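Researcher: I'd like a structural prediction for the single chain below. Treat it as a standalone chain; there are no partners to consider.
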Amino acid sequence: MLLLSQVYRDLSIEIIIWLLGAFLLGYILSYIIGAKWRTRVGILEIDLSAWTAKANGLEADLSTAKYEKEKTAEELAKEKRTNADLYFKVKAAEEKLAAYEPEESSENVEDAEAPPEEFVAANIEVDDPKLNDLKLVEGIGPKLEELLKGAGIANLAVLAQTKAEDIQGIMDKEGGTFKLADPSTWQKQAKMAVEGKWDRLEEFQEFLKGGKE
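Model: Treating it as a single chain, here is the predicted structure.
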C-alpha cells in the first residue's frame, strides 16, 4: 500500500514537471513568435504612417492646385474683361478719329500717285565737232558741261531742243552751286550755234552776263 502511494506520488510529480516544462516551452515559443509579429506589425504601422503622411501631403498639394486653378481662372476672366473694354475703347476712339479726318478727293489721290516725269534727252548726232563743246554757251562751264552731258545733253544740237525748265530740273537734282545758274538763254544760244550764226551768237553774248539777258 505504501509502495503504491509512493508510485502515485512520483507519477504526480513527474506529470507536474512535464506540464510545467510544456507551459514554459509554450510560453517561450509564443513570446518568440509574438515578438516577431510585433516587430512586423510595428514596421507595417510605420509604413502606414508614412503613406498616410504622403496621402495628406498629396491632398494638401491637390487643394493648393485647385486654389491656384480657381485663382488663375478668375485672373484670366478679369483679363478678358479688361481686354474687351480696351478693344471697345480703341474702336470708339478710331471711329471718333475717322469722323474728324477730312476725306481726300480723288483728284488729290491721283496727283499724289502720279510719278514725276523724268527728263529724256533727244538723241541727235552732229557732224561738226565744234558743236560738241557745250562751253560755247555763255553760262556753261566745265562742271556744268560734265553734268549736262551726263544727263544725255551730248552736244549743242541736243541743247537746242531742251527746254530751260528741264535743264533747271537737272541742276536742282544735282544741288549745290548748280542751282544758281540760269539756263533761260541756253536753248537760244545753242540754236544760233547749230544754225551756224556765230557772229550773231557773239553779239548776243555781249549783252549777256552769265547767260542772262
